[in-house]
Amino acid sequence: MIRIVNWLLTRRCNLNCDYCAIVKNYDTIPMSYPRMHHYIIHEMSTQDVIEGLEKFKQHNPNAFHIFYGGEPLLRKDLHSIITFCNNEDIHYTIISNNTEEIQPLIKKLLKKCGEIKGFTASVDPVLVGKHPSYDRIRKSQEGFASLVELKKHIKDVVAEITVMPETEVNLYSIVRMLTDEGISSDITFVDIAKSPYYDFSNVVSPKELVQQSSSLRNHMQQLIDSDLDIHMKEVLLPEIWKILPSEMDCQINRSLHNVSVDADGTIRLCLRIRGIFTPDMVTLKNLFMGGGRINPIAHGAIKRDKLELCKKCNHTCQLMSKIIDDSNIGPSSLVHLDRRTAMEENKDG
Q: What's the number of domains the chain is made of?
């Protein structure tokens, strides 16, 4: 059963962060890859997205939907998509870089929709004096200040933290700062493009990955033992440790617990890997058969791409849906607000 749906609503973005490749031109993609130019140019229509949401709801009404880009706020129809989710009680979060030029669009979205259930922004720990990417530093600084303000209007406000080797030492302090402001943290680690088919990451050198070490083990245990508001920390952080630096086998070829929809409506192998057979054979329109059943064609294409192209990764979202699928712990674990409310009730008790 599909537990998490990743939507790349657009590949357009106002930033060019050093570790992200999703909005770049893919000169290194093998020439045998079909539809390359089609991927970059076209985007799903509003109706395409809504019809897809309806099909996913029929398959699993408790699926959690993550609206990515590029930058999803650049889609002028985002309010229609979010309004539909609100009306249909669909679980979701919007992942945005939340920079200064995007923040007015967030305010417009709030005004048009009346409610945004979930909002996630990138807030990475950065070292003073080190500037590997101006955009990465800018989104973290501008995004943090805005998240504090957005919490007044959005219940489930989350910071997505991508840890890199040079920022590992600052992880605890940034999560403490966020927790003190009532903001949940999702922790992930920088990932690598292990082949030209890994089109989400712009990192190609293993030296840029966070490696297992005694200091990192201590940092992660400190996070687990703390009162910090970290999503699924007791379950997720130990599993993240096991797969570092980038060695997770999501096993979606056995159980399709996680689906990624590209900007043109084709189905990717996963968020990390575009795939060959999957996007060429499977789209939102034929992913499901009657009654919300997954089309065997999708299973076959994903299995083939997984076995031929995947060299493992450390995608936290994929790991999360695998854990949920294996344990069947339910969709509430994906909604930060439910867990935070329980934490506050326990403190009061």
A: 1
What is the model's pTM?
Answer: 0.89
Quote the DSSP letter at residue 27: T
Specify the pairing of strand 184-189 against strand 156-163: parallel
> Can you give the CATH number for the domain in which 93 is found?
3.20.20.70
Q: For residue range 43-60, what is the model confidence (pLDDT) as tens digits?
A: 899 999 999 999 999 999
Span 125-139, average pLDDT: 57
DSSP letters along 126-193, please? --TT--S-HHHHHHHHHHHHHHHHHTTT-SEEEEEEEE-GGGGGGHHHHHHHHHHTT-EEEEEE----
> How many CB atoms neighbour CB 60 within 10 A?
16
Select from 205, 200, 322 the least CA-distant residue to 263.
Answer: 200
Domain containing 290: what range? 4-348
The DSSP secondary-structure symbol of 211 reads P
- Distance, in Å, from the CA atom of 140 to the CA atom of 292, rounded to the nearest integer, reads 40
* pLDDT tens track for 150-209: 998 998 999 999 898 988 888 898 899 889 989 999 999 999 999 888 888 889 899 999
Residue 144 to residue 284: CA distance in whole angstroms: 35
Helix, strand, coil content of the chain in percent (nearest 5): 45, 15, 40
Closest CA relative to residue 121, chosen from 63, 168, 178: 178
What is the percent of the chain where pLDDT is above 90? Answer: 62
Instruction: Provide CB contacts within 8 A for 28, sequence distance 6+.
Output: 196
Strand-pairing partners, residue 188, are 162
Cβ within 8 Å of residue 323, ≥6 positions away: 232, 235, 236, 239, 329
Rounded to the nearest 10 degrees, what angle do helices 78-87 and 103-113 cross at?
40
Contact 159, 147 (CB under 8 A): yes
